[in-house]
Design brief:
By secondary structure, this protein is α/β, with parallel strands linked by helices. It contains nine helices and eight strands. It has a single domain, classed as Rossmann fold, CATH 3.40.50. The two termini are about 30 Å apart.
């Protein structure tokens, strides 16, 4: 039996925020390194989901020389918002990995963030706004609170990038339990600025364009509208002169990233070689 080409470390703690221990699973390639790192953020509309989303991607990327850290973060409950704290959770994971880079054989200058659905929202917020005053210094007790959370690459899969647009879409689907409103704790009619501050598209600006972005979406997604989310986000990125590339998965719905990569006809299998090529170029 072939020896695995990577080590899996389960439940590696990266921070404790407001009494909640935050952990992740680390996929670490064998060898001297230093290895580029991808911090993976699962989806689930900020309320559910698990690290299992990346159970196939963690090994796949580690076997190709990319370390992966798949994290958990604080989830919303009905009547209990988590913004902006949940962005600080993801930010802390990047800081922890960068601060621990030498002992983990990681390259602190080659870090990416990858999120799907609501996880793409959180990943994009940290990638584009992590160093803004809204999040910087929120948890000064973190071990690596003074370390930069900037990343070289952002990968977003069927993501949510404009919370006002998604709030409107959610009102059609589930008006009595709008999950965007649940995250933020207010409706747009109560606080429009909150929706602006919490939307990654607001940070698609010239001064943030050092981060390369790979935007993935499916054409048959009925949970997140790709036109008002991925396409608008991609347009804003290009207007601000980001190195941004789309990956359109024809016929794909929502929530397929956890499918086996080597399965015939797999949407993940379609994405895999294109993602590797982008990482080779940009990370």
């Amino acid at each position: 039996m072939a020896k695995p080409s990577f080590e899996l470390r389960k439940n590696v703690a990266y921070a404790n925020h407001d009494g909640v221990e935050l952990t992740g699973d680390l996929y670490l390639p064998n060898g001297p390194g230093p290895f580029p790192l991808i911090v993976n953020v699962h989806g689930g509309y900020w309320r559910r989901g698990s690290r299992d989303t990346f159970q196939y991607w963690g090994p796949y990327l580690a076997e190709r020389g990319y370390a992966g850290y798949t994290i958990s973060y604080r989830l919303t409950k009905k009547g209990k918002s988590t913004f902006p704290g949940v962005v600080s959770d993801v930010r802390a994971a990047v800081q922890f990995m960068r601060g621990s880079a030498n002992e983990l054989r990681l390259d602190s200058g080659r870090i990416a963030l990858w999120g799907n659905s609501a996880g793409a929202h959180l990943a994009a917020m940290v990638a584009l706004a992590g160093e803004s005053p809204l999040f910087k210094g929120a948890y000064p007790q973190d071990k690596f609170a003074s370390v930069s959370s900037q990343v070289k690459v952002l990968i977003g899969t069927y993501g949510i990038y404009d919370l006002l647009a998604q709030w409107k879409y959610s009102q059609i689907q589930n008006p009595h339990d709008n999950l965007v409103e649940s995250l933020l704790g207010a409706s747009p009619m109560q606080n429009r600025k909150l929706y602006f501050d919490a939307s990654p598209i607001s940070y698609a600006t010239l001064d943030n364009n050092k981060t390369a972005v790979f935007v993935i979406w499916g054409t048959e997604d009925d949970t997140v509208d790709c036109r008002s989310q991925s396409l608008e986000f991609l347009t804003a990125l290009k207007q601000a002169e980001f190195q941004a590339r789309p990956c359109v998965v024809h016929g794909a719905p929502h929530y397929w990233l956890s499918d086996p990569i080597d399965e015939p006809g797999s949407h993940s299998g379609f994405v895999a070689p294109r993602l590797i090529r982008f990482l080779q170029e940009r990370l």
